[in-house]
Design brief:
The structure is a homodimer of 177-residue chains. The first copy, chain A, has one domain: Maf protein (Alpha-Beta Complex), CATH 3.90.950. Chain A is globular, with a radius of gyration of 16 Å. The longest helix of chain A is centred in the N-terminal third of the chain and has 16 residues. Chain A starts with a strand and ends with a helix. Chain A contains 6 helices and 7 strands. Chain A is 37% helix and 25% strand.
């Protein structure tokens, strides 16, 4: 099965959960939409039309309560422009530092599309810490830990939004065997 | 000719330049891309496939130098989440307040797509001012004026990125008559 992504960090995390997974970096289009599921559903149709083999895409984002869900579906772009520093600046003076990471996997089995969503709640740290992972990992403190995603890769890979969406996909695949 | 947009402010500005223009609010998809031209080219193909009549779409964004081009193609989403206040917060302490608005029109004449780009340079104001227009107009000071786009609608409609892109389209259409 193919994971259609150009992001090496995402592929690394997914291949820990699904042995034998192959990466396909196809550069499929992503739409601008309010929800990750809409983005993923659009992309998987393009990906399957090119591969004609079972495959999935995943779209993820960080949704900050005090910022009305920003950066949400545009987390990649915001990470490349404002980065963690810009996000921390926007959070200055905000009392509610609550946020969540969400991931949506859209899987095409050759006949139809199935989606699996994972969510990890937490807070935005007061300063960036840690060097593993990617994106906003250094500023995200998952519930139940005092370390950011970028400080504790092992914990991230156990509780993350991506892991939970991948667990949904693997449970679905196992039930079909 | 149809202007395919759900934005009343954009349609109002365009109909001042192109008399008899009709609005079509089709909800065509927009892709996530680095340039407005890519976004507009993708959307016009969807729009023409539905209308089968000459039509154009326009995508616009505010590109702030100190923020590496943020919010750029995602200006609408950023406006709905962070709004002008968030942008001003990100600009605190930045010495370079330079920015530009850009608009790209993609026009389908029934045979092929033509694009027209307009740009308006300026700076990000220290505080929001004015009530006309939409989006980031209250915080954008165009070159040659001490008033924001939202304080001087007449000046905006003379020098704006959208006006310049529309001028490109109308010059093209007139040359074909």
């Amino acid at each position: 099965m193919y994971f259609v992504t150009g992001n090496k960090g995402k592929f690394k995390e997914a291949s820990l959960v699904i042995p034998g997974l192959k990466q396909a970096d196809l550069g499929v289009p992503e739409i601008q939409a309010d929800t990750l599921e809409e983005v993923a559903r659009f992309s998987i149709e393009h990906a399957y039309a090119r591969l004609h083999e079972p495959c999935f895409v995943e779209d993820a984002g960080l949704f900050v309560h005090a910022l009305k869900g920003f950066p949400g579906p545009y987390s990649k772009f915001v990470n490349h422009t404002l980065d963690c520093g810009g996000l921390l600046k926007l959070m200055q003076g905000e009392k509610d530092r609550g946020a969540y990471f969400e991931a949506c996997i859209a899987y095409h089995d050759g006949k139809k599309v199935h989606t699996f969503t994972g969510r990890c709640d937490g807070t935005i740290a007061l300063a960036g810490k840690g060097r593993t992972g990617f994106g906003f990992d250094p500023v995200f403190l998952p519930e139940g830990s005092k370390k950011t995603f970028a400080e504790d890769e092992g914990y991230k890979n156990t509780v993350s939004h991506r892991r939970r969406a991948l667990d949904g996909l693997t449970a679905f695949l196992n039930a079909r065997k």
